[in-house]
Request: fold
Amino acid sequence: MTHCPVPVMRVLGTGSISALFAVLAFSPALSAQPLPVPKPGAGAASLTAPSLPESSSRAPVTVSLNAPARDYFGKAKGPAPMKPQAIGSYAEGCQAGAVALPQNGPGFQVMRLSRNRFWGQPELIDYLEDLGRDAPKLGWRGLMVGDMAQPRGGPMTSGHASHQIGLDADIWLKQMPDHVMTASERENVSAVSMLRGRLDVKGADRTVDPKKFTAAHARLIRRAAQDPRVARIFVSPGIKKALCQFETGDRSWLRVVRPWWGHHYHFHVRLKCPSGDAACENQAPPPPGDGCGKSLAWWMSDEPWVPKPDAKPAKPKPPLTLAALPKQCISVLQAR
Reply:
């Protein structure tokens, strides 16, 4: 899977994109009929989160401010028993009082349970449950929810630069099956790319494939973006172009849908800071307009994708240390 973005004003240095794929043309005429919500099978826990007890040790966690923060947050098995709070920014923060999204619910199932990244602030849990309930009405059987955040947020040992404060979630661009998935299925079923081939080839066709990306996808993303709790939704540029072509009415929701590297297997929802959460740092609002003009044309051109012959490889960024995170994150780590 691809990396998810850090806030736009911080992230024009990206890693290699040579493994990304390109996208095909979109036909808004394609649609899908509503499908039934799957019924739990024998022994399936339809509304229960997996049991993930904290260590029995009550000794305080000893930390080094100069150590990589991911080494601490990646080991936390359960949430900090504190009042729910998103602390810091999406790419430099942590979370207290996190809640686990149930493994299964009306219109959704959680994937990759072994990663223990199905935690979020209560606002994110409510948002995903609301979207899941609406999904079948849109011709979408249900959500396959990927990475959210770790139990105490913070930097992850692999994958994302953001997803640190419990307000981000990845939703696969694939409908959930008509049955409750087994643990093995959740670990091994693959997401589906909406792209045809490589993006880093000169003159590549970077639009979406209408056999893969349908009107049902567009309706789901539109519904996801119209929720006032949403700050941004990140998608592959070809998907953004398809959405621009899809909408013939109110285009205001398109403003929060932003093209970004990767995001051809899933779309990434980012919520605004909860009201009254003074420790949470909102990202700057997206630029005015629907984002379907010059800025999107740049994303669809060769410039972002085709490497220049004399380009030097980007130096990897050092991992975030505990010192780089808000001071409250130490209390989050040590809470028992």
User: Anything to note?
Assistant: The longest strand covers residues 230-235. The two ends are 33 Å apart (CA to CA). The CA atoms of residues 54 and 78 lie 5 Å apart. DSSP finds seven helices and 13 strands in the chain.
